[in-house]
Structure formats: C-alpha cells, structure tokens
Amino acid sequence: MSKVFSVFLFLSCLMSLTAQDDNPSQQFWNSLQNLCGKSFEGILELPAEDDQFGGKKLIMHVRQCSNDVIKIPFFVGEDKSRTWVLTHINDRIMLKHDHRHQDGTEDKITQYGGITTNPGQKDIQIFPADKDTQKMIPKASTNVWWITIDDTKFTYNLRRLGTPRVFRVVMDITKPVKNPEAPWGWKEK
C-alpha cells in the first residue's frame, strides 16, 4: 500500500509540474525571471517624436525578483521615477506602475495598471486597465498595456483605445548593460 501511495504521490507531483510548465503565464514569468539582476538599454519605437521620452537614454533594470513579484525600474535619462511592478497570481499577472518623486515619496498618480484576463501566451501578456486605474485616471480607463518577450527583445507597450495614443519601448535583451543606481525611493542593498 505504501509503494502504491508513493508512486501516486510522485505521479501527481510530476503532473502538477508539467501542467505548470505548460501554463503560458508561467512560461512568460520564467522568461522574465531569467533576466533578473540584469539591465538593458532600449529605444522609443512609438511615437516617433515624444518630448518626454524622445532622444533620452532608456534603461530597464530587472532589479528585484521573488517567486511572485518582479520589480523593473525604468529610467528615462536622469529620471528615475518609474518602476514596473509585475505580480504573478495563480495563472494571471498584474502590472502596476510605481511612480516616485526624487525624495522617494509616491507621486499622486501611482499604482495604476491592470491584470491579465486569461493566461495569455508565453511571449505576450495583456493588461487592460483595472477599476483602480479607472477611478484614479478616468481618461486611462481604456488603456491596454502589453509586454512581449522573446530571445532578443522585451517590449513595453501602451494603447489608449479610441485614441491615436500608442507607446512602445523596445529593449535589446541580447546585450546587458551596467546596472544603474537605485531608482528614486529605493535603498541600495
């Protein structure tokens, strides 16, 4: 009886691991985890001209990773106010935007974003604006963010449905760069 139970337990664990590996959100998460501790430079692909991001050095640092949270500071020139916070919850992923002032205090517009509505695909996750975002930033209620990842690039994208607003940053993940200093509001470890 003990051998049968042991075999059953082993097969159950194996099936659980296999099912988890087949889950697209888990595959996507694993790809992000592989970037932990590294920084990458990128370009603003869309819009072609932008006063806030255009012509500035763009760096993302996959700075902090745990089993269920990944924090990715995103630097725009000398502006170290932005961090993408991804949280893996079962087979869904939540994206939040943490915005800080130079003294580390939260910006009045922070912690907005969305959560995937399904497991997505291993190379793309889509985040429609959530209720908190709709309350905080009414004009962003039609925002849809998506992140793609493959062997050569990571893209962060935004589309405000019903408007011409499209935003895309493409990071080259084949060439890690030197890790930057801590973003605003973080302490060096």
Write a structural description.
The protein has 189 residues and is an alpha+beta fold. It has one domain. Helices cover 20% and strands 38% of the residues. The chain has 3 helices and 11 strands; from the N terminus they run ααββββββββαβββ. It has helices at residues 2-22, 24-33, 131-136, and strands at residues 39-46, 58-61, 64-65, 69-76, 79-89, 92-99, 112-115, 124-128, 143-149, 153-160, 166-172. Strands 1, 2, 3, 4, 5, 6, 7, 8, 9, 10 and 11 form an 11-stranded antiparallel beta sheet that branches. The longest helix is centred in the first third of the chain and has 21 residues, at 2-22. It is globular.
Order of H and E elements = HHEEEEEEEEHEEE
Radius of gyration (CA) equals 19 Å
Mean pLDDT comes to 89
Structural class: alpha+beta
Tell me the overall shape: globular
Report how far the terminal alpha carbons are from each other.
52 Å
**Count of separate structural domains:** 1
Keywords: Signal
Signal peptide: 1-21
Protein name: Secreted protein
Organism: Aquimarina algiphila
Layout of helices and strands:
Elements: H1 2-22, H2 24-33, E1 39-46, E2 58-61, E3 64-65, E4 69-76, E5 79-89, E6 92-99, E7 112-115, E8 124-128, H3 131-136, E9 143-149, E10 153-160, E11 166-172
Antiparallel strand pairs: 1-2, 1-11, 2-4, 3-4, 4-5, 5-6, 6-7, 8-9, 9-10, 10-11
Signal peptide: 1-21
Keywords: Signal
Protein name: Secreted protein
